[in-house]
């Protein structure tokens, strides 16, 4: 396929997958359906549309932004340049949250707060796993919040999630009870001066607001560690995704506050530190 050769020639390692996804987007077919329709004739209009999408990918625009969707937790999510592309590594945060609340001795209707929901991927995934949970998700970007609401509706969990606009905890209004069993977040954690050094797919296309973790990448972890205890139910927990090599620093932020006990880091399936979890009582640790 010519598209594969052009993408490979431009240094894109995922060339075959990308070319198939782009062609499938043009033809309205899945990758599996493309194989069955290998002999299908492509119209001039479809060929021109494919060329347009190919050029966008050659300009390093992420596939998810080109197709407008991304799979996460085996669910389909709408995405645009207003939100980060959901990544497989973040599924560990969903797994830990859902697993803990499903087995821990919590209230019959556990309450979860997600800070900075973006596309809504985490909140929606947790809602599908824990249909009894009451979830509140905050987001400072109105455009991202609109996408999150659409994704909740798209995946049939609109009634399970209350979306609020605002900056972290400040989004919570007076009607919200501040006694959550779990606070989860995948906050911005890239040090400001490091953003421009990231792959072009990220640095040139994904929303800077969702990447910029301040001068040292820890700005949002500091705020969460400091403020979260005032919003947690007794024996509550905080779970945050972290960037590479950030575990010692994030662990220290929680350990330096007396409210937290049983602070642990969890590794993803690649063996990389991925999630830090801190409890606000001396009970058993999250596993």
Task: Give a concise summary.
The chain is of the alpha/beta class and 287 residues long. The protein has helices at 2-9, 15-27, 31-36, 44-58, 63-67, 91-103, 121-129, 142-154, 200-203, 219-227, 247-255, and strands at 69-72, 75-78, 111-115, 134-139, 161-165, 180-185, 232-241, 261-267, 273-279.
Strand content bin: 15-25%
How far apart, in Å, are the first and last alpha carbons?
Answer: 47 Å
Q: Which homologous superfamily in CATH is the superfamily of the largest domain?
A: Vaccinia Virus protein VP39
Rounded mean pLDDT is 89
Quickly name the level 1 CATH class of the largest domain: Alpha Beta
Which series of helices and strands comes N to C? HHHHHEEHEHEHEEHHEHEE
Tell me the overall shape.
globular
Largest sheet: 7 strands, mixed
- Sheet with most strands: strand arrangement: 5-4-3-6-7-9-8
Task: Compute the number of structural domains.
Answer: 2
Characterise this structure.
The chain has 287 residues and is an alpha/beta fold. It has 2 domains: 2-59, Helicase, Ruva Protein, domain 3; 80-279, Vaccinia Virus protein VP39 (Rossmann fold), CATH 3.40.50.150. The chain contains 11 helices and 9 strands. It has helices at residues 2-9, 15-27, 31-36, 44-58, 63-67, 91-103, 121-129, 142-154, 200-203, 219-227, 247-255; strands at 69-72, 75-78, 111-115, 134-139, 161-165, 180-185, 232-241, 261-267, 273-279. The strands form 2 sheets. It has a 7-stranded mixed sheet, sandwiched between helices. It has a two-stranded antiparallel ribbon with strand order 1-2. Helix 1 (2-9) packs across helix 2 (15-27), helix 2 packs antiparallel against helix 4 and helix 6 runs parallel beside helix 7. The longest helix is centred in the N-terminal third of the chain and has 15 residues, at 44-58. The chain is globular.
């Amino acid at each position: 396929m010519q598209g594969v050769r052009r993408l490979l020639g431009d240094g894109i390692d995922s060339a075959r997958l990308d070319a198939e996804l782009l062609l499938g987007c043009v033809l309205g077919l899945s990758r599996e359906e493309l194989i069955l329709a290998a002999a299908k004739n492509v119209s001039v209009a479809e060929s021109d549309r494919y060329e347009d999408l190919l050029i966008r990918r050659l300009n390093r625009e992420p596939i998810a932004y080109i197709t407008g969707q991304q799979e996460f937790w085996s669910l389909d999510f709408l995405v645009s340049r207003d939100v980060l592309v959901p990544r497989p590594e973040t599924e560990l945060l969903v797994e830990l949250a859902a697993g803990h609340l499903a087995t821990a001795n919590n209230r019959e209707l556990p309450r979860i707060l997600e800070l900075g929901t973006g596309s809504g991927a985490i909140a929606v995934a947790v809602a599908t796993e824990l249909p009894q949970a009451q979830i509140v998700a905050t987001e400072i970007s109105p455009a991202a919040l609109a996408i999150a609401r659409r994704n909740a509706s798209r995946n049939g969990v609109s009634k399970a999630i209350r979306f609020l606009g605002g900056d972290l905890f400040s989004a919570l209004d007076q009607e919200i009870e501040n006694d959550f069993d779990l606070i989860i977040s995948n906050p911005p954690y890239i040090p400001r001066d490091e953003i421009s050094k990231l792959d072009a797919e990220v640095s040139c296309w994904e929303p800077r607001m969702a990447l910029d973790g301040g001068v040292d990448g820890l700005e949002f972890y500091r705020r969460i560690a400091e403020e979260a205890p005032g919003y947690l139910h007794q024996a509550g927990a905080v779970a945050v995704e972290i960037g590479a090599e950030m575990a010692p620093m994030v662990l220290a932020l929680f350990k330096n506050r007396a409210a937290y006990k049983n602070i642990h880091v969890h590794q993803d399936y690649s063996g990389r530190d991925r999630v830090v979890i801190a409890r606000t009582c001396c009970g058993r640790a999250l596993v």
